[in-house]
Amino acid sequence: MKNSIAIVLLLFTVTFSSAQVRKWTLQECVEYAVENNLTIEQFELDLENAQIDRSDALGDMLPNLNGSMSASSNTGFSINPTNNLPTNSTAFNVNAGFSSNVTLFDGLRNINRLNRAKMNAIANQYRLDNLKDDIRLNVANAYLQVVSNKEQLKTFKAQYAVTEQDMKRTKELVESGVLPRGDLLEIEATAANQEQQIINGESLVLISRVNLAQLLQITDYENFDIAEEQFDIPPSDILKNSPKVIFDKAMSFRNDIKFSESNVELAEQDLKIAKGAYLPTLSGFFQYGTRYSDVTQIPDGNGVPYTPNFTDQLWIFDGISYGAQLNVPIFNGWSARNNVKRSKISLDKARLQFEQDKLDLENTIQQAYVDVNTFEKAYIAAEKTLEARRLSYEYAKERYDVGLMNAFDFSQAQSRVENAQANVIRTKYDYIFRLKILEFYFGIPISLN
């Protein structure tokens, strides 16, 4: 009974643990990384800031409105606010009003600042989208590395299973005196080497899974794994396009290029803003004010002085003023001129960087195009090598089984097959990833279907 309960508990534990491990597909990994990356969240905050800057620039073009009110009490010598004459008494005074100012012309700097704020918001969106593109590529590469390592581990285990059968058969032949004991030792050495390969393969799978989890910013490494799936070489017509065609297509949609180009436009706006300091500034103002004082004396209809009440004084002593102000820059210590020079230098740097980014993109596409051709040939050559190694191994096995080949030569033939299988897996996923990179520059989303 106790043994039955223990078995049930063990099965429940294994089932529960297995249920906890989520098997992630490539698409799920890419989407999760884009949604949860900390750097992306920081860039999104930068984008929010850029949108606030746009609101600031628009607000600078609108009139402001400010209200004010003060209350004070004076005892002793003071100036009577009614007649501006000195007096020696206790007085309670209230002043209130509001004012408004608007910039009518400032060398078009306000308009250029608004345009710059709009461009900056767009530039930050390009920067954010470019980061997402980079993350998609990095996640795809890390994902394929896990798949590649898992396939190699399966190959190592399958090879070890075959060696175990050979070792069992060899042991029987040695015990019956057909083969010398040295052949058994050689097979056992081969098995031990394959066990080491399995241990190394398991380590590589674990490390690559951890690397992928870190890209996704997942810390529960034990319960993180990818879906059990294999990928064949996907059909693609990308090589029907020349590197020049791919480059021209990339120039039309790549976010890194658009971001670099927008930096040039921002620098041009900065230059316009700096040049605006050479021009006059025209502003308008409007003010309204009123006051109250308990020492106010004004004559009534019969010429008798009296103190109006609070509400009456607010209407009696209110007034408005309005006008315009023109400021003409004459000399400002060369600050305006130097700011223009700095803006020109920044514009030249932005243009040079844009040209450099275009060259980098062209070189990257050229290299990606060469890589696709190179890794395709490497994969085809690896498959041919594996086929030849397998035929050689089968021939060696036939000779070994009838005693015409010693265990050392047989293990060498087997080792060459193992190396060829590992090389096929490696070149296969190298080729898939390079193919996806080139397609990505052509505007094809990352997908292994």
TrEMBL record:
Q: Where in the cell is it found?
A: Cell outer membrane
Tell me, what is one Gene Ontology molecular-function annotation carried by this entry?
porin activity
Q: Which domain of life is it from?
A: Bacteria
Q: Major place of localization?
A: membrane
The keyword Signal is annotated on this UniProt entry: yes
Signal peptide residue numbers: 1-19
Entry protein name: Transporter
